[in-house]
Amino acid sequence: MGWLIAASLTDAVRATEPPVEFQVELDVALQELSPDYCWFHPRVASVPELGTDGNPLVVLTLQKHLGASDHYSGLYYMTSKDLGQTWTKPVLPKQLEWRQGEDLETVGVCDVTPGWHARSERILAIGTQLRYNEAGVQLMDKSRSYDAAYSVYDPKTDAWTSWRMLGMPMGNDGQFHHIAPGCVQWLVQDDGSILLPLYYQGPDGGSYSVTVVHASFDGTTMKYMRHGDELRLNEVRGLVEPSLTRFEGKYYLTLRNDVRGYVTSSDDGLHFEAIKPWTFDDGSELGSYNTQQHWVTHSDGLFLSYTRRGANNDHIVRNRAPLFVARVDVEQMTVLRATEKVLIPERGVMLGNFGVATVNRHESWVTDSEFITDGKSHQRGADGSTFIARLKWSQPNHRAK
Q1: Which among 101, 197, 226, 306 is placed 20 to 30 Å from 281, CA to CA?
Q2: In whole angstroms, what is the distance from residue 393 CA to residue 363 CA?
């Protein structure tokens, strides 16, 4: 009874508080133009109190997008001890470089998302292992040409482990022939276990489906334990690049599709309601298509970051700029149009695959890079910048521990 009274009082106090607001500050962590590559997939994780003056140590992972489509280098990283005011230069550890496969192909890991695992005091970086031929074209001729890979970073020794595989079973009739936790947001549960959304495909190809894997992690080894519902959509390539968050005791999953984005919710992070298209609160489609959406989660509000049509941006491939953020109505699972703000502006080129992270109680960061493949700045202003859009909260974010 006492707990129920306390919970009711907490809810009553929260209802009288103004909704959490934020200001956006845009910084550049790295700027480079090269005819051979552009920087891609910038995402951060923060380690509490290992920076200067009580700040976290922030680790930013990123890769070079090379000449062929979706052809990526090994995983580089940069660090900052002063909340992004200064950064080390990108470094490629030998443990995260390409390696040679059994058939002399190149094996790499891309679409990586790092995150802090407090119980083990390690950063866990999860991505998709894939295979390339000499021209940088992805090879899909073998089982697990896509596979779930992870590396572990010890911030106290500044050391990474080599890539290891999750070891997920093949499933019924080889349904998990290819599995890809690429560009996803994953969660650490209170017991230290991992909820990892991924997309998968059977041996006969066809549309991708999505599930959430429950895995253990002891600071060294990640092990598959079970997986949840299998979400399907037989439309173009199906469902890919899922991202998961938890807000006020409930789980929310956003999903990429070639035609439109989708969303669903769950009580346990494994079993989900039927998916529904993302819409604004006025009933119109969000307009985000063929690209990912990610959650920005504050203890007092849930937000979605995305790109969309209808922003005077038809000259941008897939309308992938500017990058927006808006509050989510969690009851209706819609985006509140009136709250939409630009996080990263459109400067003549599309923005690449982006990331979102809680950095401390006062800031969440959205990170992205401008996609320039010819090494020349654009007349509208794009110059190969890797951006940090800082959401500076009006109230402390108690999700940050």
Answers
A1: 197
A2: 6
8 A C-beta contact, residue 236 and residue 207: yes
Per residue in 235-282, pLDDT (tens digit) is 999 999 999 999 999 999 999 999 999 999 999 999 999 999 999 999
User: Which residues pair with residue 197 across a beta bridge?
Assistant: 212
Dihedral sign computed on CA atoms, order 200, 202, 208, 210:
negative
pLDDT (mean) for 332-336? 98
Residues 6 or more apart whose Cβ sits within 8 Å of residue 243: 183, 184, 185, 197, 253, 254, 292, 293, 294, 295
User: pLDDT at residue 14 above 90?
Assistant: no
Domain that holds residue 61: 24-393
Does residue 57 sit within a domain? Answer: yes
Checking if the pLDDT of 9 tops 50, the result is no
User: What's the confidence (pLDDT) of residue 18?
Assistant: 72
pTM of full prediction above 0.85: yes
Burial 226-238 (b: 16+ CB within 10 A, else e): ebbbebebeeebb
Residue at 7 is within a domain:
no
What CATH number has the domain bearing residue 149?
2.120.10.10
Are 255 and 241 in contact by the 8 Å Cβ rule? The answer is yes
15 vs 6, 328, 336, 398, CA distance in Å?
A: 14, 17, 18, 17
- Structural domain count of the chain: 1
For residue 241, report the phi and psi dihedrals to the nearest 5 degrees.
45, 55
Q: Identify whether 8 is part of a domain.
A: no
Establish if 15 belongs to a structural domain: no
pLDDT digits (tens, 9 = 90+) for 338-352: 999 999 999 999 998
> Do the strands 250-256 and 76-80 form a parallel or antiparallel pair, or are they unpaired?
unpaired
